[in-house]
Amino acid sequence: MTEFEIRLKELSNQAEIDLTEEMISRFSLYASLLKEWNEKMNLTAITDDEGIAVKHFIDSLYLLKLVDIKEGNSLVDVGTGAGFPGVPLLIARPDLKLCLMDSTAKRLKFLETVLTELKLTADTVHIRAEEAGQNKTFRESFDIATARAVAPLHILSEYCLPLVKKGGVFLSLKGKPESDEIERGEKAIKVLGGEKAQIMEYELINGDKRTLIITKKISQTPPKYPRTSAKLAKKPLG
């Protein structure tokens, strides 16, 4: 095992996350590709091995500790960027039907390379979330939508909840929310067909405070949502 693989094994054990040697090998290759591609395009500000392992990989994998994700669930990672949390979840749970969604084609090219090198299967979709939410191919078609530090909750909910089928769940991964973010988000969530969000606070093994906001979809999103980005920005639901 490489130094990175040994350290990731130690860190995942500390976090009580069980990874096989095959998974650790895939994470190691993912880290190498991330650093290589980051030299020619902006993927992440975190480039040290420890940071990648904890703040990207283990943070993403915490979802599997905090939420019951059923076998074969469909999951869309909105504004996936460099692939977090979607790709780490797929490494640990290759049974998931993963869709990596982003508005930047270059990032998706990177992710297609990662998937090929890691011998994993997922869809990559070049589209803005608000456009996807009005597209019958994607609207209310996923069991789970995830997003990591993309936008404030009241904005993010309008991007993500229209993609989630009734009975599904929207998972927002954040640091510490702004003082009024949850309150504003709750107003948007109610309009968009979600029930009152469940807030789960946890701490990474390096001491970083994190927040997972869990929103169950209990009714269909009204057809007018999501709105265009201009209308969404001008008159947010929250």
Describe this structure in words.
This protein has 238 residues and is α/β, with parallel strands linked by helices. It has helices at residues 3-14, 21-38, 49-66, 86-92, 105-118, 129-132, 153-160, 181-192, 229-234, and strands at residues 74-78, 97-102, 123-126, 142-148, 164-174, 198-203, 209-216. A seven-stranded mixed beta sheet has the order 3-2-1-4-5-7-6, with helices on both faces. The mean pLDDT is 95.
Specify Rg, calculated over alpha carbons: 17 Å
**Inertia-based shape:** globular
The tally of strands reads 7
Q: Count of helices? A: 9
Look at the structure and give the mean pLDDT: 95
- Strand portion: 15-25%
Which stretches are poorly predicted, pLDDT < 50 over at least 5 residues?
A: none
Q: Record the strand order, biggest sheet.
A: 3-2-1-4-5-7-6
**Which structural class fits the helix and strand makeup?**
alpha/beta
Write the H/E string, N to C. Answer: HHHEHEHEHEHEHEEH
- The percentage helix is 40-55%
Q: What can be said about the biggest beta sheet? A: 7 strands, mixed
